[in-house]
Design brief:
Pfam families: Radical_SAM, TRAM, UPF0004. One of its GO terms (molecular function) is metal ion binding. It is found in: Cytoplasm. The protein is α/β, with parallel strands linked by helices and 446 residues long. Helix content is 35%, strand content 23%. The protein is built from twelve helices and 21 strands. Helix 7 packs parallel to helix 8 and helix 11 packs parallel to helix 12. The protein starts with 12 loop residues before the first strand and ends with a strand. Bound molecules: S-adenosyl-L-homocysteine, iron/sulfur cluster and FE3-S4 cluster.
Length: 446
């Protein structure tokens, strides 16, 4: 093995690189706040950071592999410069493969799981002494209580309300990397949301692996579900928009559906993954719902909010999936007419029951099915966008457009809308939607 250059043990600057889901983005922000509280500042653009936190994702093989290629790249750059950044691996790969990372990658000093990152300061103390530190505990005391106050300034913010998963879909690593389902207390969430709004958030997206499993007690001690929490958050002055993701069909309460008909700030958008259209495949996935029970839920949402945009996740090529079963996935796509979706080739994950099932599908067949599915999903997305032409709505500006003078924002239905008019990030602009493309629309300011 090539010699290891000296590692920076007293970092002054940091960079957090988050992969995977929105919860990892949220965790990345919270880790930044932990580091900032210790006086470590973000590295400037294009500048090497003294401390690099790789906030990793284990969901599919490709995602997990990025961890090792990133470590390799950082280690090589370190050798070239004669001093290596302090590398911390966080997130779901850290949880799943912490020991392996420490064994394989001497350039890594810290391995910290998704439930332990509030202990980063102690781990940095160890690193300062030149020691390596691993923490992949899932402590009973929630990390949230130990984290510093929110400092994130952004018009659109994430807020984790629920974490973990007890569902054990047979293909999925999340129950192992994130642990059991927990709900954060109502009062803490109201307080954190208030802080985010104080710092400029106009939109808050509530996050959870099964966000609609959130349960708690409201200020009067009454049992509340996600619908109740949303109603309370809607009372926060200055908060304009509320979203939530990801929901599970089996945790869908009528009160949450009803909230879509009553709470103006709750956006007309629902991300409700179904994964597959065949009941046999759904059973083998241990989804514990059928295509029909899923469709019933969608129907209920459309009854209270006819314009609701539906989005979902799909897996093609689950072990044993026949051509006829795949065709049932295409059918459910046509039935729901999704506004937007994420779709993936099945990736066998170590330690999950599906990885050892008979009938693993050949990669070429999976690629071909994914292509057919994505073509169909794109048609529906374009149709949804076309049906929006002529609608008046507000967009929340979140970035500059490609051409000078252009700005991009999100419609209530989470479509990307661009305008050719003066604006700034965080502005709420009234527009009429015009000219729908497959992935975006033009907005004409009112
Ligand atoms: N808790 C959410 C999201 C979990 S991960 C839910 O239940 O819907 C996000 C998506 O990744 C899943 O919805 C699924 O479509 C996909 N996914 C999970 N494991 C996978 C695997 N082994 N191979 C391919 N896709 C997978
Ligand atoms: Fe994974 Fe299923 Fe849990 Fe979603 S519900 S996180 S897909 S095990
Ligand atoms: Fe990935 Fe972990 Fe999220 S595996 S999708 S980062 S919960």
């Amino acid at each position: 093995m090539r010699p290891q250059p000296p590692i920076i043990t007293a970092p002054k600057t940091y960079r957090v690189k988050s992969y995977g889901c929105q919860m990892n983005v949220y965790d990345g922000e919270r880790m930044s706040e932990v580091l900032a509280a210790r006086g470590i500042v973000p590295a400037g653009e294009g500048e090497d950071a003294d401390l690099v936190v790789l906030n990793t994702c284990h969901i599919r093989e490709k995602a997990a592999e990025k961890t090792y290629s990133d470590i390799g790249r950082l280690a090589a750059a370190g050798r070239e410069k004669g001093r290596s950044p302090l590398i911390a691996v966080a997130g779901c790969v850290a949880q799943a493969e912490g020991e392996e990372i420490m064994a394989r990658a001497p350039a890594v000093s810290i391995v910290v799981g998704p439930q332990a990152y509030h202990r980063l300061p102690e781990m940095l103390d160890k690193a300062a002494k030149g020691e390596r530190a691993t923490d992949t505990d899932m402590p009973a005391i929630a990390k949230f209580d130990a984290l510093p106050e929110r400092r994130k300034r952004s018009p659109s913010a994430f807020l984790t309300v629920q974490e973990g998963c007890d569902k054990f879909c047979t293909y999925c690593v999340v129950p192992y990397t994130r642990g059991a389902e927990i709900s954060r207390p109502f009062s803490h969430l109201v307080a954190e949301a208030g802080k985010l709004v104080e710092q400029g958030a106009k939109e808050i997206t509530l996050l959870g692996q099964n966000v609609n499993a959130w349960a708690g007690e409201d200020e009067k001690g009454r049992a509340a579900g996600l619908g109740g929490l949303i109603r309370r958050l809607a009372a926060i002055d200055g908060l304009e928009r509320i979203r939530y993701t990801t929901s599970h069909p089996n945790d869908m309460a009528d009160d949450l559906i009803a909230a879509h008909g009553e709470v103006d700030k709750l956006m007309p958008y629902l991300h409700l993954p179904v994964q597959a259209g065949s009941d046999r495949v759904l059973k083998a996935m241990n989804r514990q719902h059928t295509a029909e029970s899923y469709l019933k839920i969608i129907e209920k949402f459309r009854a209270v909010r006819p314009d609701i945009a539906i989005s979902g996740d799909f897996i093609v090529g689950f072990p044993g999936e026949s051509e006829a079963e795949f065709a049932e996935t295409l059918s459910i796509v046509d039935e729901v007419r999704y506004a937007q979706c994420f779709s993936f080739k099945y990736s066998p994950r170590p330690g999950t029951p599906a990885a050892t099932l008979e009938g693993q599908i050949a990669p070429e067949a999976m690629a071909e099915r994914l292509h057919r599915l994505q073509t169909r999903l794109a048609e529906h997305q374009h149709a949804f966008n076309r049906a929006s032409e002529g609608k008046a709505c507000t967009i929340l500006i979140d970035r500059k457009g490609r051409n000078p003078g252009q700005w991009l924002g999100k419609s209530p239905w989470l479509q990307s809308v661009w305008i050719d008019a003066p604006a700034a990030i965080g502005d709420m602009v009234s527009v009429t939607l015009a000219e729908a493309g497959p992935n975006s629309l033009r907005g004409v300011p009112a």
